[in-house]
Amino acid sequence: HHILSEFLPDEAATLACGARLARALRPGTVVYLEGDLGAGKTTLTRGILRGMGYAGRVKSPTYTLVEPYSLPNLYFHHFDLYRFADPLEWEDAGFREYFNRESVCLVEWPDKAEGFLPEPDWRIALRPEQTGRRLTLVAPTTHGQACLAQLTA
Ligand code: ADP
Ligand code: MG
């Protein structure tokens, strides 16, 4: 089972789904999070962070490109690359070092930095369905599949 598909009727469902995903995420995981503006990407990320025990504010790193969180068992780096334009910035800002074995990196708008990002362990898409959303999760790597197995066990 390398695929998960779930209908999320409302925002609460998106947050709950994020909390569930949080329990399966291990350090060293790269997550691509795809979907249009307003699809619920940041809401899902908020749910993941809540599920990891982070009680503070989760704001969209629209201008800073990344918001780092230091959690008890791992680092969590939330990227929003919607405004990513300058490839030089990638090296200058040291973004490459964020992708390491101690960190979960979750990337909104990964297509904006194609060629710079490591391959994803999970590829999550959020699409409108009725008045809610459809979440689809694909795990292309063995690491991602092992995480997903935790979730569906
Ligand atoms: P994105 O980061 O993809 O641009 P946001 O998470 O910032 O999207 O905003 C998504 C909007 O959609 C928020 O207003 C949120 O309340 C709403 N939303 C989130 N999940 C759902 C859902 N499953 N059904 C309906 N509305 C949702
Ligand atoms: Mg967002």
Please tell me about this protein's structure.
- The chain is α/β, with parallel strands linked by helices.
- The protein has a single domain, classed as Rossmann fold (3-Layer(aba) Sandwich).
- Helices cover 27% and strands 29% of the residues.
- The chain is built from four helices and seven strands, in the order βαβαββαβββα.
- A seven-stranded mixed β-sheet has the order 1-7-6-2-5-4-3.
- Helix 1 packs across helix 2 and helix 1 crosses helix 4.
- The protein starts with a strand and ends with a helix.
- The model has no long low-confidence stretch (mean pLDDT 94).
- The structure holds adenosine-5'-diphosphate and magnesium ion.
- Keywords: ATP-binding, Cytoplasm, Magnesium, Metal-binding, Nucleotide-binding, tRNA processing.
- This is tRNA threonylcarbamoyladenosine biosynthesis protein TsaE.
- Pfam families: TsaE (PF02367).
- Belongs to the TsaE family.
Report the average pLDDT across residues. Answer: 94
Number of individual domains: 1
Helix content: 25-40%
Number of strands: 7
Tell me the distance between the termini: 10 Å
Question: What structural class do helix, strand and pairing data support?
Answer: alpha/beta
User: What are the distinct ligands in this entry?
Assistant: adenosine-5'-diphosphate, magnesium ion
Question: Low-confidence stretches at least 5 residues in length (pLDDT < 50)?
Answer: none
CATH architecture: 3-Layer(aba) Sandwich
- In CATH terms, the superfamily is P-loop containing nucleotide triphosphate hydrolases
Give the biggest beta sheet. Answer: 7 strands, mixed
CATH topology: Rossmann fold
In the CATH scheme, the class would be: Alpha Beta
Strand order of the largest sheet: 1-7-6-2-5-4-3
Strand percentage lies at 25-35%
Based on CA atoms alone, the radius of gyration comes out at 14 Å
**Distinct helical segment count:** 4
Query: How does the overall form come out from the CA principal axes?
Result: globular
State the order of secondary-structure elements, H for helix, E for strand: EHEHEEHEEEH
